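4.2 Preliminary Data

To establish feasibility before requesting continued support, the project team ran the inverse folding procedure on a target of 87 residues. The structure was first converted into the token representation described in Section 3, and no sequence information of any kind was made available to the design step. The complete token record follows.
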């Protein structure tokens, strides 16, 4: 069991210190609060990742469209029989 580079013995020491500092009545409440906070960070991180991926995908599509339009413009510029100007 390894969380954030902290093994089981280190977690036991941290729990023992928390028990001494906060007492047995407040420790479960603090654990729940910490769990909710971490879940909120995880949710926010997931939403940020989804928005970032959507923005990157949109940018990729826009770039592809612009490149294809530029390619079409280059192809028409190299037309050996350009339209004659109207008088």
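Position-by-position output of the design step:
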């Amino acid at each position: 069991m390894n969380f954030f580079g902290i093994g089981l013995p280190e977690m036991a020491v941290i729990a023992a210190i928390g028990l001494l500092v906060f007492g047995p009545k407040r420790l479960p409440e603090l654990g729940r609060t910490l769990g909710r906070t971490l879940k909120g960070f995880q949710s926010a991180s997931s939403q940020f990742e989804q928005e970032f991926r959507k923005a990157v995908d949109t940018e990729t599509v826009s770039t592809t469209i612009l490149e294809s339009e530029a390619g079409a413009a280059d192809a028409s510029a190299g037309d050996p029989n350009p339209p004659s100007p109207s008088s």
